[in-house]
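Thread: "does anyone have the structure for this chain?"

Original post by V.I.:
We have the sequence but no experimental structure in hand. Need at least a predicted one for the grant figures.
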Amino acid sequence: MLMFTDPALLALHAVLRTGSFEAAAAALNVSPPAVSQRIRKLEEKMGTPLVRRTTPCEATETGARLYRHAEEMGLLSRALAADLGQPAAPATLRLAVNADSLATWFIEAMAGVEGISFDLVIDDEDHSADWLRRGEVLAAISAQPGPVQGCDVHPLGVLRYHATCNAAFAARYFPDGPTPEALSRAPCLTFSIKDRLQIQWMEAATGTTPAPPLHIMPATTAFIDAARSGLGWGMNPAPIAAPHLASGALRELKPGLTIDRPLFWLVSRLAAPALTDLTARVKRAAARHLA
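Reply from O.Q.:
Generated one for you, tokens below.
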């Protein structure tokens, strides 16, 4: 069985964490050939490639599973050292989170955690749980409660979204309100091709699914800036949209029609004991900011 102190596993973790053999060697205070040799021996032992020698280096499917194992062992070793009153080595934690949670409340949860370096994967909340299913992360903020085998699920609340645009955009495209015809012409903001919030809102508003011209805007702050500037309309999270709605910089396309996305904290059951503090902080931050 591979333990976290196994030099080969440490080398694999360092390569995939830093993206190169040279950076991994510097982190481990060894030479790049030594890292390469450890990885090669581990690949021989596992009988399959573990690292794609790209720039940056990428994990194969088996390599990703070993990376997750290394993170689990690192977190558990750290928790054990703390329980025994011994110095705890830093650990890393890869988790999946949606951009809007990161922009509105999740950093507050991370900020109080010491000794853990976060490696965040940004993905749509409807798809973040897939990273857990594939074994590529140990925890995720998800709109889907599961089932994800081997994971604990903690309900967090809902993140509310408003359909917003600026006054000039509303006057130009929606003089008669958000009709199906108007929505099919008005430029729409979307976070990515996975983002269905705007589609869900149009269905709720009109009972139809117009196909408007799209601006793909994969950043929360850019998303609301684009709505304020009149580039398009889009669904913006209430914590960020509220002051702009209050000031008049943004207005709702259809006042009172919002979309609520339930959010859940999914965490690997094996790593859960080592992430008790983080889980508590996630739940407290969510309680302060989510409906």
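V.I.: this helps a lot. Residues 93-291 form a domain with the D-Maltodextrin-Binding Protein; domain 2 fold (CATH 3.40.190.290).
O.Q.: and The chain has a mean pLDDT of 92.
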